[in-house]
TrEMBL record:
Pfam families: S-methyl_trans. This is Homocysteine S-methyltransferase. Zn(2+) binds at residues 221, 293-294. It comes from Clostridium gelidum. Its cofactor is Zn(2+).
Amino acid sequence: MIMNFEDIFNKDELILMEGGLGERLKREYNIQKDNNISLAGHIYDENKRQALTELFKQYFTVAKKYDMPIMVTTPTRRANKERIYCSIFKESNVIEDNVRFLKQLKEETTAKVYVGGLMGCKGDAYSKDEHLSIESAFEFHAWQTDLFKKANVDFLYAAIMPTLPEAIGMAKAMELTGLPYIISFMIKKDGKLLDGTTINDAIVAIDKYTTRKPLCYMTNCVHPKVLNSALSQEYNETSVVKERFKGIQANTSELSPEELDNCAELKTSDSIRLANDMINLYNKFNLKIFGGCCGTDNTHIEEIAKRLN
């Protein structure tokens, strides 16, 4: 019997996450993102759905091979209420259908898969500008959290959050679902979110503002060396960060968020070098969740799993 996600998080020393999706779909299948909801509408097209299926199954295969639990998230980071209503998918149940898609894939494998509802900031995750206040963020994101709760996901995941107020508002909406949830920041080498908040201060603030605190905190879409630098800053070398910051979905590029946002081509590195950097994080900071973002594929995730295993 598979344990629930919170139990597996507390019990297991190591957990995998999926690797890249959007860049792989573009590079390997010539499938472009939708201008409004990015990848979330792909499940309604037979060829795009099949491509997504193939990628997720590759990650399941790695998890099963190394007998590690794996967190996978719905490709819904941009599928908020405002964007869905502006898209050609406004008559569809985008959130519920994406959860159903991943749950069906989960039923077809013996890997230990946990399905998460993926959310993101309202604006540009690579910029500190035009982001929501705590109150506005709570109102804006509660629509999506309620749908994920009804769809019965295993956990909620707020990805690449660049500013503290919106992260707090989203966390407050997430906690009301009763589901375990994780807040993942967009950070820079200096150990701060894009709005200048240190990782330590962001964790302290969110924990203070919530009654049901996040299960842990992470970062995604940054290189392991960027995280190494960020966590090595004196103001982040605290007991709070050591206890609460637990994972990374790694980008293969060491470019800054601003540079990545304006980069016309994919920056990548080989699986062995990335795995070496990930193992360094594990040894130095005792992280437990390891996955991939832009530039990664199943070979990166397999090399990381092999080394961790």
